[in-house]
Please model this.
Amino acid sequence: MLRTGRYDLFSMRRQDGLAWTEAVAKALAATSPDIVHLHGLDRLGAEIVPLLRRLRPSAGLVLTLHDFQLICPDRGLLLRRDGGLCTRAAPDACHQCLPDIATGAHALRKARLLALLDQIDLFIAPSEDVRSRFMSWGLPGARIAVVRNAVPEMAPPPTEARQRPNRFAYFGSFAEHKGVQVLLKAAERLARTGGDYRVSLYGRLHHPSRETEQTFTEALSSAAPVAQLVGPYDRSEVCNLMAGNDWIVLPSLWFENAPLVLLEARRARRPVICTGLGGMRELVRDGIDGVLVPRGDPAALAETMAELAEDRGRWEHLAGNARQPPDPEEFARQHLDHYALTRKSVPA
Model:
């Protein structure tokens, strides 16, 4: 097992000596792989790429681009410090978010990472949006394949909504970039109307600061009695939990790539309300199998939720049109096909 150690988030370098390289060498010697597939370089260190190439030159190297950590040295979120979206991850733009690091250092970081990544034979992206952003950053599009994320098939729950589909739910992390505060402000607006709505939050805050926890608690209190905190959940039960609600809300503020919650909602036959950002726009056809709402706009979200709660016919239409995600077998087949092509492209 390769353990992670001290690691620099900006440079993506390991800082715990060279003992880990011996563990990599032993693993490769024991398995003699034809393909080495990396699911990110965070914590492993970007220098693992040339190490793998040197130790196993005949193996195909594959890297799945699950997030934007390579592009964005500030939390990998492509969010500016003012909360806006970053659409140009260039050294001068990165310097605006991390002013203590010189623009030249940002340029060197990008050049170093692109040079290391040039040794990767195939990149896999979960969405066209991710592929496009990495191409704009400098990766060759011909070496980036899109493979949609999969979720296991689940026994479909009942799809019939109540007469009034007024039950909304959020699943996942309560991190700020996920937009939970936007949803709570929308729920507060619904509460002020005195109408019958329910917004259930499944998940939790991960290692919050005292200020973050207090802000969340106050927002939840202001949204009562409409909003209620359910708390952590078992992923194996997510389909049944979603079936206890009418709508799944993803008010994300960042470029989600291919959120698992959205795919699980498809399995649960529950329509999604989400911001039209990143890979979500590829998965949700507005007005056909889901509803897109403006980013960071509690008023627009509350208005949409209020309208949807009164329209059972629309719920039935959207739920009935939901496209199912790939199953794990299809997901595996696509990977094997790409592996085979990658093996042919690597010199013996």
Observations:
- The first helix runs from residue 19 to 31.
- The mean pLDDT is 93.
